[in-house]
Amino acid sequence: MSTRKGTGYYKVPSLKGVWYRGHYLYDGSVASLEEMFDPDRIKETRVSGGWSPPGVPTRAIKGHEFGLTLTPAEREQLIAFLRTL
Ligand code: HEM
User: Fold this and answer.
1) Residue bearing the CA closest to ligand 1, atom 27
2) Ligand 1 atom with the shortest distance to the CA of 23
3) DSSP 8-state assignment for residue 49
4) Spans of all domains in the chain
5) 50: closest CA among 39, 34, 74, 68?
6) Burial class (CB in 10 A: 0-12, 13-18, 19+), 41
7) Is the pLDDT of residue 79 over 70?
């Protein structure tokens, strides 16, 4: 439970209770789990459901590409599972 602030490590958020949190990612740029695993999220034409820098109407929400290549059915199952945590 000790802090790693300033050590260069990235302390990731727990997925426990992820269903009632949001917005997601460090800057809150993703508004929902559906948006988190939407492959269009990493396209430059994306209108972010969450936080965006002022004056930036569309942008790719980059990073965390795990889970973006799932089929629609797999994505639905993953999100259903995450909502049980
Ligand atoms: C398909 C497997 C994965 C799922 C379902 C998943 C799910 C998630 C979710 C829902 C978040 C957002 C949590 C929040 O903001 O409260 C998250 C954040 C994060 N995950 Fe994963 N993850 C997966 C794989 C991975 C892997 C393999 C890594 C590392 C190699 C990783 C590293 C991270 C990091 C560093 C964050 C924080 C990113 C940020 O705050 O900007 N994840 N993950």
Assistant:
1) 66
2) 15
3) S
4) 14-85
5) 34
6) buried
7) yes
